[in-house]
Design brief:
Length: about 210
């Protein structure tokens, strides 16, 4: 069974409440998603390895800790995943960014891929796959499949909210991929929308509804 980490920090939960609120407009919604993503990145990167590095302070030489040089790749699932990129990049500015385009067929609810552009060295990178919502798990599993087919070894999945059905599907097909989320919601409805959810994240991010 894959690891599931619920990031229940008070600031994350507070901001998530406003993200869910139907009265939150696109500008504030984008800002909140960016802020929560940045806060979540702190926990997602907790186990990055460190190395000893000697530096000169204004007072003397000393040994400090710096990242060991492991490369990071940030992969948003288009289009809603784009809303999480800027927040995470504020903490991981050296990360390279790839893009995976997947949408859910409105009739079958199955993932349909239409775009994939990734860094050429993804096998050497710790990849962080981001999408605000984990509903059926179809899009996430398809994206993970693409990454593994291209040689990815280490993948973390990061979502704002998830349905139990989506978590179960990812754990079933990709038990090696840890899932980081801010909240586990109740269920999916008959239209495969997360309940209580936050609506369509892409439409709310970009004002297209």
């Amino acid at each position: 069974m894959g690891k599931v980490v619920v990031i229940d920090h008070p600031l994350v939960q507070h901001k998530l409440s406003f993200i869910r609120d139907k009265n939150t407009g696109p500008k504030e919604f984008r800002e909140l998603v960016e802020e929560v993503s940045m806060l979540m990145a702190y926990e997602v990167t907790r186990d990055l390895t460190l190395q000893d590095t000697e530096i000169e302070t204004p007072i003397c030489s000393t040994m400090t800790k710096t990242l060991s040089g492991k490369k990071i790749g940030l992969i948003p699932i288009l289009r809603a995943g784009l809303g999480m990129v800027d927040g995470m990049m504020k903490l991981i500015p050296a990360a390279k960014i790839g893009h995976i385009g997947v949408y859910r067929d409105p009739v079958t609810f199955q993932p349909v891929d239409y775009y994939c552009k990734l860094p050429g060295d993804i096998a050497e990178r710790d990849l962080i796959l981001v999408d605000p919502m984990l509903a059926t798990g179809g899009s996430a599993c398809a994206a993970i499949d693409f990454l593994k087919e291209k040689g990815a070894v280490t993948i973390r999945l990061v979502n704002l909210i998830a349905a139990p059905e989506g978590i179960e599907q990812v754990q079933k097909l990709h038990p090696d991929v840890p899932i980081y989320i801010a909240a586990i919601d109740q269920c999916l409805n008959e239209h495969a929308y997360i309940v209580p959810g936050l609506g369509d994240a892409g439409d709310r991010l970009f004002g297209t509804k």
